[in-house]
């Protein structure tokens, strides 16, 4: 889930979308993966399988908020006789300041940071496998609170290993986000986060994934899918990829300029479903070392059947996409491992509903 930062004139407190999913019994082959891995929020993002809103990642936003971004600066009036400066958007710290060199030693052309034609879409990891030396958690019991942060850091290391070199070849310098597991509440530049509301949050202002330690303790938490922890971190890392490639800033500017609430929800769905697709790409690249099976895919599919915007509670906002859309975009990444297949910004409205 992308952590929201209220922006005038639309700012408001993050919506609480946490809720208990339907008490459905799943096949004995899958261990109750009905909790929303991204309970109620989309980690700026999240794997999006949460109990509240997203697909394995958990980010919640309220109408008009731009996750992890500051509003454009107000015009600054210079001294008498000088020219008045134009408003300048505040860039995200997650965006690299310079162009990285490729693995061949040559400096690639300046990367395209737009939403529709971003250079990240030129990265295709089809057939590529990365070895992640991280033990995949069994569905239960949940990790001890003291171990949550260190485990998340190991997963982030795998994600950086999978994506850093291919992105560098396109001029995108991938940084390593921090993982902060916290108790009670925590105050960040992106807002104050509690233990309820989302299983994780990504804040681009600090390049940090904030992880509430109680998020995995519930009877139907994301731990009920074998790849629950992996999916949660991968979805949030998907938001980090959006920030690193420049898309998050473009999204923020577009969302800030949009006066229509329905259009802002549409932009949010495109953002979240893309993070879902990026999550799928990592699962594809790490499939061999994590022994991803048909059972794992089944658990993720069943899980997402309860994380859509159409599900309870009634306070849920249409900002993460339906269960069908979440599953579809996750599978697009999983089946292709091609970032070009994750372009939600040019997709038709009906595919991001």
Mean pLDDT: 76
Share of residues in helices = 25-40%
Write down the oligomeric state: single chain
Give the H and E element order: EEEEHEEEEEHHHHH
Number of domains: 1
Order of strands across the biggest sheet? 5-9-8
Give the tally of β-strands: 9
* Distance from first to last alpha carbon: 18 Å
What would you report as the Rg, rounded to the nearest angstrom? 19 Å
Write the layout of secondary structure elements.
Elements: E1 4-5, E2 47-49, E3 55-56, E4 66-67, H1 145-168, E5 178-182, E6 186-188, E7 191-193, E8 201-203, E9 208-212, H2 228-244, H3 247-257, H4 261-285, H5 294-304, H6 323-336
Parallel strand pairs: 5-9
Antiparallel strand pairs: 1-4, 2-3, 6-7, 8-9
Helix pairs in contact: 1-2, 2-4, 3-4, 4-6
Structural account:
This protein is an alpha+beta fold. It has one domain (4-70, 91-352). Helix content is 29%, strand content 8%. It is built from 6 helices and 9 strands; from the N terminus they run ββββαβββββααααα. The strands form 4 sheets. It has a 3-stranded mixed beta sheet, covered by helices on one side. A two-stranded antiparallel ribbon has the order 1-4. A two-stranded antiparallel sheet has the order 2-3. Helix 1 packs across helix 2 (228-244) and helix 2 (228-244) packs across helix 4.
Keywords:
8% strand; 353 residues; alpha+beta; two-stranded antiparallel ribbon
In summary, what is this structure?
The protein is 29% helix and 8% strand. The protein is built from six helices and nine strands.
